[in-house]
Amino acid sequence: MHRDRIRLPALLDKVVSAEAAAAYIRDGMTVGMSGFTRAGEAKAVPMALAERAKTEPMKITLITGASLGNDLDKQMAEAHLLSRRIPFQSDPALRREINDGEVMFVDQHLSETVEMLRTHQLGPVDVAVIEAVAITEQGGIIPTTSVGNSASFAILAEKVIVEINLSQPLLLEGLHDIYIPTRRPVRHPIPVVAPENRVGLPFIPVDPGKIVAIVVTQKLDSSSTVLPPDQETRDIAGHLTELLKHEVKAGRLTNTLQPLQAGIGTIANAVMHGLIDSPFHNLTMYSEVLQDSTFDLFDAGKLDFASGSSITLSKAKYQAVLPDFARYKPKLVLRPQEISNHPEVIRRLGVIAVNTALEFDLYGNVNSTHVGGTMMMNGIGGSGDFARNAYLSVFVTKSVAKGGAISSVVPMVSHVDHTEHDVDILVTEQGLADLRGLAPRERARLVIANCVHPAYRDALADYVERATARGGHTPHLIEEALGWHARLRETGSMQAG
Ligand code: COA
Prior knowledge:
The chain is of the alpha/beta class. The chain is built from 17 helices and 25 strands. The strands form 7 sheets. Strands 1, 2, 3, 4, 5, 6, 7 and 8 form an 8-stranded mixed beta sheet that branches. The longest helix is centred in the middle third of the chain and has 19 residues, at 231-249. The N and C termini lie far apart (70 Å).
């Protein structure tokens, strides 16, 4: 049974139920689970664990690649199974528990988690639970639609549970490139010098003796929640395309640009989609999540190759891509997230990084994570890995949120994820501010002229004028700087009066 999926005969008798596999996980353990932005997560074992926790109170530290699909974060949060969650999530129920202080959430640059595990600054990982399409003759684990942190979890954990997902086609074999950096301080350079380079193994090498249980599953990944482009996101894409055209004209880029990274979410997806109607061609991606837009760009003949750590698609795109996967496979590679997001590689390749802000301020500081400075949304994800090291670091957002009650451009951000030093370009549907080479006072003028919604423009201009009269390299009225957020809290709107 399943001999094409479990090719090491000695492992065939490890096949057990999800409940039996979950029994290896006990109260107080640290568990590393596969899963990255709703793709390739272990499904049956966490569900069994959440079920068990309803009658047998227990707590674990859960580390993943990024967010999980199939409502798993919700189920585990509602079963009060999670004491600590690392490094990213995007589930409303878990978000509530985090903001209530029930779950201790460690919001981490996605490239850093396994570096910390490897050097025992985090962990140890007691059990790894990894979704796979198959286990090789040597016991190597072939991941499914994401790699995330799975390789290092499996290598570092004391025990490994594998979920073989029969719904994930064997065609995924060969998609992955598992490269684990050598130990520091004598680490070799990571030999990725182009997005298409394969530098590792097509499976996760583990000692098969550590595989204590195998669960056979059929459940599909959840589809992404990304919405199709609307007029505002199309405008954002248009402004960015104009900037890139300008860069070509100035001789700084060619029409093939440089490897592109696009963050998660509706806006970044729409921006990439916008490149379909652009003069650019033979593009490449060195990104983290490959969303619908990656496949739209392939289909439009614009994109030559895409490197990522996961593939997260809408239902319609999933249904179109999967039967035709043989056509896309030669143009794709999935890597561990420490490689897809590695500062060394991002800097070497000169990535053009496009990430989404919740809000940004007059001087270019960006908040991607905290609503009103306190309430966690999803986490920084890989945006910091890319923004700090990119050739061009772009942040996009709509100029207002919640029907205009919130201006996404504020005097001072209520939480800082990306400092002014990591941000080159800001874009809203109103326009684009190119901050490169500008001092704070110059930045403020440009941001107000180009990015702010008209309903907030005068108020922001007035703030800057009064702040500048007081002086300073980065002018602020410190007693008013967060006043817009305070007003929102008190009245439900940032609008005065
Ligand atoms: N204040 C409060 N809420 C805001 C806001 C602001 N300034 N700006 C946006 N929002 C709300 C929206 O209203 C929306 O709320 P809803 O879910 O209730 O409708 C929500 O935030 C998402 O915004 P949306 O405009 O749909 O954008 P998105 O889907 O592109 O997501 C982020 C935006 C910032 C939440 C998302 O990109 C993110 O989590 N980024 C951080 C991680 C990251 O960048 N990872 C990529 C690395 S590769």
